[in-house]
Model the fold of this input.
Amino acid sequence: MVRRSRHRGRKIDGILVLDKAAGLSSNAALQEVKKLFAASKAGHTGSLDPLATGVLPLCLGEATKVSQFLLDADKHYRTKIKLGERTDSGDSTGEVIETCTEYSVSGVEIENALTSFRGDIEQLPPMYSALKVKGVPLYKMARKGIELEREKRRVTVYEITLRNFSDPILELDIACSKGTYIRTIADDLGQALGCGAHIIQLRRTRAGVFSEEDCVNIGYLQKVKEESGLDAIDEILTPMDQAIKELPGVNLPSITASYVKNGQAVILRHLPCEGLVRLYEEEQFIGIGIIDDDGKVAPRRLVVS
Done:
């Protein structure tokens, strides 16, 4: 959906599922996409390391109102890890701080070590991360050689699978909750194996409901725009309600929807018993609602049509 605005940029609403390139920060990718779409408002749904590639949903316009659901969603990754070297960042962009040339590790030993990484685990956030302490991202302090005390965080690893091992490189598939640091898993695994390790390749294969199959890259967007203009790349956008399609949908008649838009809870038949719902006015998505204690549906986060 495109709307005119007096402000700089277009009022374009939707989600662009980007296949982020290696070497590009999430914010740099966001700014490139925002510029390509000439969008007045855009936001990403959680940082993806510059080293990493893969699924990075970007929300344009009113779609930023569903970005939190993507931020909170589970993620899937595929990673290649090199044994024998530990780095200060946990990946190949950092400085090598420990080297182990004489070690012997088998696939069975790796499989055994991986058992302690499944389920609810505690992680110490790496210094080279976007996590903020007193408003300052940790990576900015790390670049100055400053290490701050951090608290461990509980995350969930639903599955971690050894896909391949050819010493010194192993490849893992990981399904995990939000906030899981794959670099920390690599570093901790290296410590558990007694040889050190760091990530040399990382790809996000799924974020919430979106997977690699939904992605487009910046080069493709540029090509389509050059050949066919803004309208053509607008067609590539995913409707914002797709990000929350796992929530039950509630379709409201226009009169009932008008009450909801004014902040009132309404009574409807066949509502879910509890929880969040997708709200539609005559099949047009108008936002997110919640079933209140009285069994009514109340507005939670409405979009501007």
